[in-house]
Amino acid sequence: MLTDKALKNWAKKPEPGQVQDGSIPGMFAIVQNGQTAIRFRIKYTHNTKASTKALGTYPKTSLLAARKKAGAIIDDLASGLDPKLVAKRNKLDIQNSPTLNQLADQWIKEEFLNAASDQKYTKRVTNRIKEVCKSIGTLQASDIDAPMLRSSLLAMRDRSEDEAARTLSKLVDIFEFGISLNLCERNPAYSIRKQFKSPKPESRKTILDRNGQQQMIADVLAYDSKPECDLLFIISLISGARIGEIAGGKWDEISWQEKIWYVPAERTKKPRNGPRRAHNIFLPSQQIILLKNLKQITGRNAYLFPSRAKSGHMSKETLKTRINRAGYQGKQDVHGFRSSLSSYLNKEFGHLGNTETAVEIMSHRTPQGVRAIYNRNDYWEEQCVLWQYWADYVEGLLPFPLGELGLKR
User: Fold this and answer.
1) Number of domains in the chain
2) Please, are residues 52 and 42 in contact by the beta-carbon 8 Å criterion?
3) CATH number at residue 223
4) Which neighbouring-strand residues pair with 30?
5) What is the extent of the structural domain holding 226?
6) Once rounded to an integer, what is the mean pLDDT over residues 260-271?
7) If 0-12 CB within 10 Å is exposed, 13-18 middle and 19+ buried, where does residue 374 land?
8) Which of 9, 289, 327, 369 is 20 to 30 A from residue 71's alpha carbon, by CA?
């Protein structure tokens, strides 16, 4: 057993050897071969891994001081903390490392909410982070390692690889935020990013040949449904817009005189860089007819396609469900209407000037490339011409006169 007297005598004639303290489990003093210094150390086990921690050298570190350090390590182990990480935090002046819950909340308030304006998006991200924090949120952020974080994301990855990858990217931001504030010293999320990758997006299913399109339209319209659902189908097909922009449309967005549907920015898709942008949709003669037929049915409501749902309008899933039930699941996607429009117009009218760029803008996509950066022209006149060409083509695919859509047949 170590005592002050025994240490003094040992220091006078330092022979190689090891003596257990006896009062602190795992603590001992040692003189290694070829050396004269008496060093205090402690052996411990954390997460099934055996380790040894230096406590100081005698007589610079007294027996009492060494025992205090060893006692603190025992206390850390009892609290589930890794003594080595505690030592690193102390060295970096990170004694009061927050829990992951606290760090995530601070990041959301100070960083995330200042950059994100869409409420649905912020709610979705916040819920994903809370899901991860259910298992490890009460742990100090500095104590969380890559295996812990990986384990907390596995259930989410089994459900959706894309969802898990997006959540991990936010966790990378959270830990980087903590490092910048000296609240933690490493980023365990960054080291597992290669294990959580979003799958490559599949191309939207769409039918491109005329006969196939004609049959698909006939089959979907033959499926028993409400007249306004027929109109939602063909109006969406002609517009080339995202279904969310159409299903949530309001009558006060329609300018009959200008033949324009003004879709507000809050209902458009947010681009990766920059804010949401309003989307103007030209109304060719066929759309005017269809909208007037629709107005006879839903004109007393604020929404074009009203519903008893909480949103007040039809879900964007309504049309997808109808197409699937008509027998086109995996063959025709609602989003594929945009591909049909683009493919047809570029093939038939690509020889006209600026067709490709105009079609991109019609679909509310941002044209890519260096040329697009400097060319800010929206080619509205070209858009209007092309929309009319497309509407003429779609009308030719219908199994009955376009004016009868939405009316009792």
Assistant:
1) 3
2) yes
3) 1.10.443.10
4) 18, 39
5) 210-404
6) 86
7) exposed
8) 9
